Amino acid sequence: MLNQFSRTSLLLGDEALKKLNASRVAVFGIGGVGGNSAEALVRSGVGALDIIDNDTVAVSNINRQLFATLKTVGQYKVDAARERLLCINPDLKLNTYKTFYTPDTSSEFDFSCYDYIIDAIDTVSGKLELIMKANEAGVPIISSMGAGNKLNPDMFEVADIYQTSVCPLARVMRSELKKRGIKKLKVVYSKEKPIKPLSESEEQTGNKPIPGSTAFVPPVVGLIIAGEVVKDLCDL
Question: Residue 232: helix, strand or coil by DSSP?
Answer without folding.
Answer: helix
